[in-house]
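Aim 2, interim progress. The first record below pairs a target sequence with its structure tokens.
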Amino acid sequence: MGCPPMIISRQLLCIVYRAIALVALVATWHQNVAYFGGDPFTGTVRFWKATLLTPASVSITVDIFLFALAVAVWMVAEARRLGIRFVWIYVVLGALIAISVTAPLFLVARARRLQALQPVGEPTVLTPGDLVGLMLFALSALILSVWSLFR
């Protein structure tokens, strides 16, 4: 007999989204501050040159930009559909800070808006396979993030 599906509340999802945003902020900006040094302008120019230095860095840069574009299109459309204000702050700060920080914060705003519009909505149901897959993905991301702080 298999494990039953797990029902996840919007509140728990918001906690997870906030945790992801916090880890993303610490992990990305730890590296950015180390790279930029004391001169933000020169550091920024060097940073963007480095993202286009090797085929691997170009690949990940293009991947992130296209993913960020898809997320931005979705955020704007979803914000208009649900009446979430200030969506462009999430998009612009995603470009300036990190999309991995602002996308989860938008998801918190979206969950809160959905709660206001539909207090008793359909629950989010995750299968045991979903949980295992997400935990493996989360563990990989967390290991990489922690490793990046000490390299």
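The second target in this work package is listed in the same format:
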Amino acid sequence: MNPGLVRNVIVAGIAAMCFAVTAIAHHSFASEFDRDQPFSIEGAVSEIEWTNPHGWLLVDVEGDGETVTYRIELTAASILMRRGWRRNDVQIGDRVAVQGFRARNRFNVGRATVIERDTGERIYGQSIED
């Protein structure tokens, strides 16, 4: 058997497996989130996950004597960087307001459409009304 052909088949197989894993990991907006369930929260950033295929912002929201942590999905870290957002632009403890849409099956998970600092400065996205 031709060694070059064997190598090409192996490389193609590995590439196909890598693509399949990426395709499974990614999801459409409609499969995960519900446009009929918009939300708006205000709270303190408790964690930032600078990851691909989606970054995450964890926001602690206080109310009724307890704190609920919301997991807010962002776009990919690579896209955030292309749009000018850097890792240190948002720090643990920063107060933010988030607009977005809730996950279909989890109350405290959502996809951000807008994130603003408590100063009113928009640091992410467009509002639903824009």
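The chain has a mean pLDDT of 81. This observation will shape the mutagenesis plan for the next reporting period.
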